Amino acid sequence: MMTAKRIKTLTAVLVLASLLAGCTTDKANNNADTPVTLKVMYYDEGAFFEDYGMLFSALHPEVEIEVISTRALRHEEGKDMDEEMIKFIEENKPDVLMLSPSQFTKLARDGKLLELDHRVEEKDFRKEGLLPGLLDYMREMGGGKLYGLIPYYDSQVLFYNKDLFEKYSVEPPRDKMSWEDVFRLAAMFPTDGEGNDRVYGLSLGYGYDLFSLGSLIAHTYNLKI
Questions:
Q1: Is residue 225 part of a domain?
Q2: Are both 187 and 150 inside the same structural domain?
Q3: I need a labelling partner for 200 at 20 to 30 A (CA). Which of 3, 9, 102, 189 fits?
Q4: pLDDT by residue (tens digit) across 79-122?
């Protein structure tokens, strides 16, 4: 039996990036004793300081943080929220941005973000603490260059019962299978039996129905309702 589970770790759907125009981080690097203000776009001030700000301020007391809350953005029917967000950024000019993947890709493509490739190669940047493949993924989103990092994410993983695959002579799952491959393997298990004797080729866990499954498959192919 194969079981799909959702695993939470540190890249969600959020991207933290630096805006090219008016970025104050270079000033802070040039003279650590010079007070600077860092404008950060986030849900609200309290959430930012709870998640990141208190630790950052303790390590960098010379940097004053001004949080630009995105709560002022109202979700209204008929409005393109990505376009509204970009207008919000142009008006408030934050240094550090919290973006959705689509917003991040557009701003990177339009040359509005600060390239970070050379910064992650600096001695004090600990790349070994990042998830393997993260920088490559972010460069792919940025059209070949690194413009941001992701603080946390959700991912899907597939577990399988090796004993059952061997018992019923079914080939084990492999990397980079398509949904068609997953369903083909699942269909090779017997469908008889009841209760504890019943074997299921695929279990998606709690909370999944046909609509949820269809949405999950569609998301894999970048399809939207």
A1: no
A2: no
A3: 9
A4: 788 888 888 999 999 999 988 888 889 899 999 999 999 888 88
